[in-house]
Design goal:
The complex is a heterodimer of chains A (121) and B (281).
Chain A: H1 3-10, H2 13-18, E1 23-30, E2 33-40, E3 43-49, E4 59-63, H3 65-71, H4 83-88, E5 92-96, H5 99-103, H6 105-113, H7 115-120
Parallel strand pairs in A: 1-4
Antiparallel strand pairs in A: 1-2, 2-3, 4-5
Chain B: E1 9-17, E2 20-29, E3 33-38, H1 49-52, H2 55-58, E4 61-66, H3 89-102, E5 109-113, H4 115-126, E6 133-137, H5 159-167, H6 177-188, H7 194-205, E7 222-227, H8 235-245, E8 249-252, H9 259-262, H10 264-279
Helix pairs in contact in B: 5-6
The chains are: A alpha+beta (121), B alpha/beta (281).
């Protein structure tokens, strides 16, 4: 699912525009599987699967595979519709230098939800 | 499309509020039982425009919404630049009663959402004699902070965008796009630190868990409506209040934390049976 994020985000001109000031690398952790996503001017320019020895990233979002899979359903179940819903239930951790995440929250929420489009195909 | 005016009128009310002169923006539509509407944290009275434009509501109710001080088109009090806005339970209760007094409302119905849904619990506990009935939308007795509130007001993060970003997931995923984005627009327009100041009440000062059992709905009927997708004021939290007070509660399908603005027609379908019960009181 992670691999599909780049194509869905980069094909969405409105989303790319919303993230036009974003330039960072962040991590998605699915259980013990890790991915680094490079964002430049709102486009996902690289998705690198782990494992990593010394990963360099600004912030990380960590949750179990079961949680991510529910979150990525086209219409997620109650309680799994939003990143903050998961954080509130302690099903996800958002950690590190979260400034880019908070300063571009509407952008990152849609980037992270992009795999829902794949599931809906 | 031919031009038309909505039946809503807006005026500025000058009054003494919390010991200071204030200028509040007040909107209303309809005639009948006064229904005083209380907006959510960091937003304003525009959230209720769907109700004010629905003749099924305004035929029997005078729907009134005021923008709290610091919010919407209401001004902050003179000298605001030298203070940090923080809403407290004490001030919030006083504000609502003083506004109702200033408007000359005889035992109005008060209906509030989120922070408004919390404060109606305080009103039920402290001032039941002053109200005909209370309607709590998205009522929870307490909500623990689930993110660092300091992100909401700092110069290196756009306040409007982060406030909208924080609440965006509280809108039901099934809500129509125009309702969702208008709801978020209100958040984007909030003044710096206002949402954060309201959340001081919502997440810290307004905790009423220890007094819920003392609410007597015979003194003032209480009705609870909560959207199923609300993960901030959850269905479980609302049902707990219902269980402890005996107040009727309905979990609204396909709605989130902002029922009156994210999908007004759907919300009104849930509200009308409650208004019917209030008319029959």
């Amino acid at each position: 699912m992670i691999e599909t994020i780049a194509s869905h985000v980069n094909a969405d001109a409105k989303l790319v525009r919303r993230g036009r000031f974003v330039d960072t690398t962040f991590m998605i952790a699915i259980d013990e599987t890790y991915y680094l996503l490079r964002i430049q001017e709102g486009r996902v320019t690289k998705v690198t699967p782990g494992p990593f020895i010394t990963p360099d990233f600004s912030f990380a979002l960590r949750a179990s595979r079961g949680v991510w899979e529910k979150f990525w359903q086209p219409l997620p179940p109650l309680g799994f519709t939003d990143i903050f819903a998961l954080v509130k239930q302690k099903l996800m951790r958002v950690e590190g230098d979260i400034h880019p995440f908070m300063a571009n929250l509407l952008y990152f929420k849609d980037v992270l939800a992009a795999p829902r489009k794949e599931a809906a195909l | 499309m031919s031009p038309r005016f909505e039946p809503i009128t807006g005026r500025y009310l000058h009054l003494q509020l919390l010991g200071k002169p204030h200028r509040l923006y007040v909107e209303e539509a309809g005639q009948g039982i006064p229904l005083l509407c209380l907006h959510t944290a960091g937003s304003d009275g525009r959230q209720f425009r769907g109700l004010m434009n629905d003749a099924r509501v305004t035929s029997a109710f005078r729907v009134i919404a005021f923008d709290m001080p610091w919010h919407g088109k209401s001004s902050p009090p003179a000298g605001w630049q030298n203070e940090e806005y923080q809403l407290t339970s004490r001030d919030y209760v006083r504000m609502i009663v003083e506004v109702a007094d200033a408007l000359g409302l005889d035992r109005p119905v008060a209906m509030g959402c989120s922070i408004g849904g919390r404060i109606v619990l305080h009103l039920a506990h402290e001032r039941p004699e002053r109200f005909r009935a209370l309607i709590g939308l998205e009522s929870a007795a307490h909500t623990e902070p689930y993110y660092d509130l300091s992100w909401l007001n700092r110069p290196d993060v756009h306040g409007g965008m982060v406030c909208a970003g924080v609440v965006s997931g509280l809108v039901a995923p099934t809500a129509p796009d125009d309702g969702r984005w208008e709801t978020l627009w209100h958040y984007m327009q909030s003044g710096p630190g206002v949402f954060k100041g309201d959340l001081h009440f919502y997440m810290i000062d307004g905790d009423i868990r220890h007094r819920v059992d003392d609410i007597d709905i015979k003194k003032c009927p209480l009705f609870l409506l909560t959207g199923e997708y609300d993960y901030s004021c959850t269905a479980e939290a609302t049902l707990d209040i219902a269980k402890r007070t005996g107040a009727p509660a309905t979990i609204m399908k396909g709605l989130g934390h902002f029922p009156m603005s994210e999908d007004p027609p759907k919300f009104v379908e849930y509200l009308l049976p409650v208004l019917e019960k209030i008319r029959a009181l």
